[in-house]
Amino acid sequence: MAALVSASPMLDLDVDKLTYEIFSLLENKFLFGYENHHPNSNSNPKLAHSLSLSRDSFKSSTKHNPPASKVRILSIDGRGSTDGILAATSLARLESFLRSKSGNPDARIADFFDVVAGSGAGGILAALLFTRGRDGAPMFTADQALRFLIRNRHKIFRSTPSGIFRRIIRPEKLFRKTFGESTLKDTLKSVLIPCYDLATNAPFLFSRADALEMDGYDFKMRDVCASTLTARPVNIASVDRRTRIAAMNGEIAMNNPTAAAITHVLHNKLEFPLCNGVEDLLVVSLGNAQSELGIGNITSSPIGLVKIAGEGASDVVDQAVSMAFGQWRTSNYVRIQANIGTPARKHGGFDCNLSAVAENMLTQKNVESVLFQGRKMVESTNIEKLELFAGEVIKEQERRKTSILATVVLKQASPSPRTSSATTLSILSSS
Questions:
Q1: How many of the other CB atoms lie within 10 Å of CB of 173?
Q2: How far apart are the C-alpha atoms of 63 and 412, rounded to whole Å?
Q3: Which of 119, 182, 369, 420 is catalytic?
Q4: Which of 253, 338, 362 is closest to 290 using CA atoms?
Q5: What angle do CA 309, 312, 317 make, to 5 degrees?
Q6: Within 13 A of 55's CA, how many CA atoms are on the CB side?
Q7: Helices marked H in 35-107 — which ranges?
Q8: Residue 35 lies in a domain
Q9: Which residue range or ranges hold the PNPLA domain (predicted)?
């Protein structure tokens, strides 16, 4: 027994050294992509043999265990300085990339995303692109949604004398004509649209999942759109009249809803059973440009400070999300944002040049958060990032066609008379 005890330290040292060398090389090669051989591998036969076995084992395991599927999230900011036009233009370009890369000329944004979150003008875009039309397809293509926002901009937004907040000027008729009697249950994928509820002094999140799972949480889409846009209180009620809220602008509560969308997915195992962390997500977050507010405006205008706070909050969300993604930041999370305001505002003709201004913003290089390195200017332009992200989404679409397990299991409303408890499960493994 004593001999065993005295011999074991040397044996442990040899094993520990060999184990360290093996995992050191594997870490360098497989985690960081280094191709250089370990300096001690050629002089240590046991190490060389162990490495050979490890490589064979690694190749065998990856051959039979392909990369896991990812939940695809689209997040759209509030109006910014472009009244949602930058995000709408981004969506039109993204849909064009998806069509060309998939070979399907009729592909829609809703075909390639599992979750959409939108605030303010972003909420309107989410509703237009993800509400089911009479033919069962989304009501609008991305290009149609862009034209809708430009054409109806003055019906939806109007500046107050301060020029800071926008007020809804009788948009109810427009939303009623557009969405009719459609409700949250009529959306095609998981939809999240925020507002601020003055009755409870807390944010309120309109959610398709809540509408299907619980009484009192299904709202008409026209009311949802009015709630996320208005700068004045709007009293609305759920379809069954069980829930009433005094809604105000969703941008006050959540101008950048990306974090809310990610949280919704990570904590919703019923609909996203295989999603365990940020490595299982593909997220694109669309901004709407930042305002050009000088130091004089910041110090002299309290309302200017409110605007700065709102835009600053969006940047904070972007930075926090970027840091949370860590090593997956560049592959799994993309932020599209312009760093300057809209020059066309200064010279007039803003409406005429709106699309051109947004297109020009897509050619900009954006400042992004870099892990442990603060914020830096990235090499890719916004449009290049959109095209690369479209490629990743297409890869995910193809991966699901051969997957046995369903990445997303969304509840669908029953065709019978609607109640929030009358739901069925629909497995979405290829859409």
A1: 10
A2: 35
A3: 119
A4: 338
A5: 125
A6: 11
A7: 45-64, 85-102
A8: no
A9: 75-262
What predicted TM-score, i.e. pTM, was given to this entire model? 0.78
Q: Are 133 and 188 in contact (CB under 8 A)?
A: no
Q: What is the mean pLDDT of the chain?
A: 79
Burial of 407 (0-12, 13-18, 19+ CB in 10 A): buried
pLDDT digit string, tens, across residues 375-424: 677 788 999 999 999 999 999 999 999 988 899 999 887 654 433 333 33
92: containing domain: 71-159+169-402
Q: What is the CATH number of the domain that holds 220?
A: 3.40.1090.10
Asked if 58 and 30 touch (Cβ cutoff 8 Å), the reply is yes
Contact, 256 vs 336, CB < 8 A? no
**420 classed as catalytic:** no
Specify burial of residue 193 (Cβ count, 10 A radius: 0-12, 13-18, 19+). Answer: buried
Smallest Cα–Cα separation from 148: which of 121, 130, 110, 168?
121
139's enclosing H/E stretch is none
115-118 and 281-286: which strand pairing? unpaired
To the nearest 10°, report the CA torsion of 186, 190, 194, 199. 70
Which residue has tokens 């809209």? 342
Residue 42 forms part of a structural domain: no
How many C-beta atoms lie closer than 10 Å to residue 290's C-beta?
21
Q: Give me the residues paired with residue 71 across strands.
A: 281
What's the number of domains the chain is made of? 1
11 pLDDT higher than 60: no
Nearest Cα neighbor of 246 from 282, 304, 197 is 197
The answer to whether residue 328 sits within a structural domain is: yes
| Secondary structure class of 393 (helix, strand, coil) | helix
CA distance 161 to 55: 69
pLDDT digits (tens, 9 = 90+) for 243-267: 999 998 888 889 999 999 999 999 9
Instruction: Say how many Å lie between the first and final Cα of the chain, rounded.
Output: 64
Task: Residue 331: name the closest of 283, 272, 387, 287 by CA.
Answer: 283
Query: How many of the other CB atoms lie within 10 Å of CB of 93?
Result: 22
60 inside domain: no
Q: Is the dihedral of CA 188, 192, 195, 198 positive or negative?
A: positive
Q: The tokens of 210 are what? A: 């809540």
pLDDT in tens, 301-356: 555 565 666 677 888 899 899 889 988 888 899 999 987 654 444 434 445 577 88
Location of structure tokens 């605030």 = 119
